[in-house]
């Protein structure tokens, strides 16, 4: 059975693959915010389509011009595609931008030096393969080595690595053989080349769409679980997490503590400085408090300027130490637009829960303690004494 493929058929399939990707992503793009990352990916695909069309419809065009134009467009297209992938991962810094700009210029220059001097096809293949591999190296590394990468990121990263290895293998093979192994020479190498190109197209297009979908899903989860202003857990998510934590502590017979606090005279801050400054005070305070908590603590904006913290595995002494640290630390916090510093009042309750313990019961006790702290002159903390078990 012949393993040779028809060159024109494969190129047409590659063109249609890119075109359909452009159509589908354009449909998504029309109904969403016009993101620069998406427009860059579409331009990358359009550039690659143009490059393959030049080859398919090259009748009458001089070979030198065809080779120069096609490869230049492909290099630019791959550079833009990997740039869009890096933007999608929020890893496209100024230094990365300059790296890709210089890399694109150097690869195109190196290819044309070979083209207009020796014009040895095997050397051109090696330069082109190494160039595309260099474009893919950074996103491959980031996808695999990013902090807590998702399963899909790892898979796409590994596929990028496999393509990178195939490209480098193609380059070394081209440099090490004396046979003519061009794209237009029927051989098993030609078949391998076109299959690799098809795989690059498939992984690049599908991988980008999957990562885009994953990012959209993560944003939906963030909007559903976190407070939009402060970035801490919203009330619904806090209640859901807290119910599970209370049940776990009831099974283990361990202490936990609940803390409620709000900003002293917050209404006066809004009336004096305006709601924009009031919102900024909430943002700075929540970021500051969050930085002082442990990773296992649950921190939520419960409503308005009231915040809740559930402290797992925390007894009365540990909770009191933390509450006082939060109070004193907040007194050092300065909102630039405000003349005075912030202060908070806190209520705290500590229990060893039972299976009958409800978050609502703990909240009511803690709320009473918070109002006691306010009645005592604010900028302080109060504890609601309870029995070891609360139902």
From TrEMBL:
Pfam families: GGDEF (PF00990)
InterPro entries: Diguanylate_Cyclase, GGDEF_dom, Nucleotide_cyclase, Rev_trsase/Diguanyl_cyclase
Superkingdom of origin organism: Bacteria
SMART domains: GGDEF
Spans traversing the lipid bilayer: 12-29, 41-61, 67-86, 98-117, 123-144, 156-176, 188-212
Keyword Isomerase tagged: no
GO molecular function, one term: diguanylate cyclase activity
Keyword annotations: Membrane, Transmembrane, Transmembrane helix
Domain GGDEF positions: 254-386
Keyword Transmembrane in record: yes
Signal peptide stretch: none
Protein name as it appears in the record: Diguanylate cyclase (GGDEF)-like protein
Organism: Paenibacillus endophyticus
């Amino acid at each position: 059975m012949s393993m040779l493929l028809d060159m024109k058929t494969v190129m047409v399939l590659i063109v249609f693959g890119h075109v359909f990707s452009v159509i589908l992503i354009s449909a998504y793009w029309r109904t969403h915010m016009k993101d620069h990352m998406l427009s860059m990916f579409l331009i990358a695909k359009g550039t690659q389509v143009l490059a393959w069309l030049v080859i398919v419809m090259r009748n009458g065009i001089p070979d030198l011009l065809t080779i120069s134009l096609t490869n230049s467009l492909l290099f630019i297209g791959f550079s833009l595609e990997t740039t869009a992938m890096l933007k999608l991962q929020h890893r496209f810094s100024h230094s990365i931008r300059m790296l890709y700009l210089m890399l694109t210029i150097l690869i195109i220059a190196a290819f044309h030096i070979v083209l207009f001097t020796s014009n040895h096809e095997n050397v051109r293949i090696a330069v082109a393969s190494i160039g595309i591999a260099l474009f893919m190296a950074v996103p491959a590394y980031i996808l695999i080595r990013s902090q807590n990468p998702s399963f899909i990121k790892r898979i796409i990263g590994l596929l990028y690595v496999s393509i990178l290895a195939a490209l480098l293998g193609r380059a070394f093979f081209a440099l090490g053989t004396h046979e003519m192994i061009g794209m237009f020479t029927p051989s098993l190498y030609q078949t391998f080349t076109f299959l690799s190109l098809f795989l690059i197209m498939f992984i690049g297009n599908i991988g980008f769409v999957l990562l885009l979908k994953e990012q959209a899903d993560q944003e939906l989860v963030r909007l559903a679980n976190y407070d939009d202003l402060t970035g801490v857990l919203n009330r619904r998510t806090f209640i859901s997490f807290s119910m599970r934590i209370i049940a776990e502590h009831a099974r283990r017979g361990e202490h936990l503590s609940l803390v409620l606090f709000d900003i002293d005279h917050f209404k006066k801050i809004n009336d004096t400085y305006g709601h924009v400054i009031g919102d900024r005070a909430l943002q700075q305070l929540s970021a500051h408090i969050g930085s002082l908590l442990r990773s296992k603590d649950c921190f939520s904006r419960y409503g308005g300027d009231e915040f809740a913290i559930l402290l797992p595995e925390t007894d009365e002494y540990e909770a009191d130490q933390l509450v006082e640290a939060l109070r004193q630390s907040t007194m050092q916090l300065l909102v630039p637009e405000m003349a005075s510093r912030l202060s908070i009042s806190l209520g705290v309750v500590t229990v060893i829960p039972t299976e009958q313990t409800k978050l609502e019961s703990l909240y009511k006790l803690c709320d009473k303690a918070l109002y006691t702290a306010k009645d005592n002159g604010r900028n302080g903390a109060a504890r609601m004494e309870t029995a070891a078990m609360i139902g």
